Amino acid sequence: MKDGATALTPLAVVVLGLLRERDMHPYEMMRLIRQRRDDRLVNPTNGTMYHTVGRLERAGLIAEVGVDRDGNRPERTTYAITPAGAAAAEVWVRRELPCIDRILEFRVALAEAHELPREEAIDLLTQRRHALARYRAELRTGLEGAAARGVPFQFLIELEREDAILVADLAWMDGVLRRLPDPDLPWGVHELPADTMARLTAYRESVTS
Fold this sequence. Notes:
Layout: H1 10-21, H2 26-35, H3 46-58, E1 62-68, E2 76-81, H4 83-96, H5 103-111, H6 118-148, H7 157-179, H8 194-208
Antiparallel strand pairs: 1-2
């Protein structure tokens, strides 16, 4: 990885996000990804997970902190995120959060956006909202021009679907951008109430036991 964030994959960012919570071994990471239904975004195999972990370690973004053996099971190496890893993940999220042309990357960035300061997240999402609005305006102009030229419906059906998705995405973004500035809405783990943190801790322990 040349400069940390440049070659990060969505799976690598998810791994870094998990290690921001606590030190883990790859098997635990895979189990948490499935328990939390993050396999909607990334669905690693043993091979892709260990390949990703190896690349992150070689890049200095994570580091080995221990090796465990549970009974007759194979040894499991536990990793921790490094300061360089945390910084690289934030750079990646900042780059992908305002983008509209890489949907998977945006969804992963959105899932990790709570690691950014609230005002920065609002700014980046506002940039994305403006880019979506510009793109939809261009799309509508094209659709209206095609309709005026008598282009048959079957050649426009996919574009009409994309327009409907853009309408829904813009409505969702408007709702989020109305809510995010509210100081009573927790943003980031450090703002979560103590009872919420206790429930999260209990949940994490239940899925890793």
